[in-house]
Structure formats: structure tokens, C-alpha cells
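for the writeup, i need someone to sanity check this before i put it in the appendix. the sequnce is what the collaborator sent (i think, or maybe the updated version? ugh). structure was predicted straight from it, no edits. if anything looks off just tell me and ill rerun, i have time this weekend
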Amino acid sequence: MNIIQAFNQLKEKEINLDLLSEVMELRELCEEHNNYEYYFQCTLLIIDIFISEGLLDDALKTTLLAQDMLEDKKNDYQDIYKKLLDNLAYIYITNQNYQRALEVEQMKKDFLDSENCNEVNRWLLECSYIHEAIGE
């Protein structure tokens, strides 16, 4: 079975801690084969597992590490980078760290498709929510 098929099978499973070891193994395999796209896709799945289990500190640490690793490649993997930023904003909002969430939203602005009204409206709504939480 190739990496893409293995990843798609993992995505079909219920997201919980039992899935974590399988995703970690696949991510290691991706790294061995220099398949960075699926390495980061596995990382996103790991972050989703942490978030769904309420392990926000682990999710934050993993997200920040992945963001740092993607910094030089963020234009090559824009969808993955945007998802990382979405996760980061969610974690900060959940932890009531609204100022950091707003900083993340500003970073997301550079990756918005201005022709996609739904994407722009969602971003505006997220920013409005954060501004309201801050009291601005």
C-alpha cells in the first residue's frame, strides 16, 4: 500500500488517541521517503487528534513546530499552511488568548483567495469574533 492510500485509510477512521500511533508511523514513513506533503498532512491529523481529545498544549506545540518547519515552504504548501493557521487560531481562541489569535488571523490574510467570497467572509467573521472578545 502506498503512502496516499494509507493516509486516506487513516482519514476514514474515527479521530481519537487510538489512531495516534498509526498516524505517527505513517508520518515517519513519509519523512523517510521525503514525502513532505503527506508528512504535513499526517501532522495536521495528529493536531486534529490532540484537539479532539482536549490536549491543547500538545496541539499548540505540534502546530508551532510544524509552522516553523513550513516557514520556507509555506507558498508551496499553502492549503496545509492555512490549515495550520486555522488550528493555531482555534487553539488560541479556546485558551482565550485573543491577541495571539488576532495575530494569526492577520497572517492568514496573506493566504486568502480574494476571489473566494466564502473564504473572505469566514475570515472577516473570525476577526469580528476575536475583536468582540477583546472588547474592541
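The mean pLDDT is 93. Helices lie at 3-12, 17-32, 36-52, 56-70, 78-94, 98-109, 117-134.
thx in advance!!
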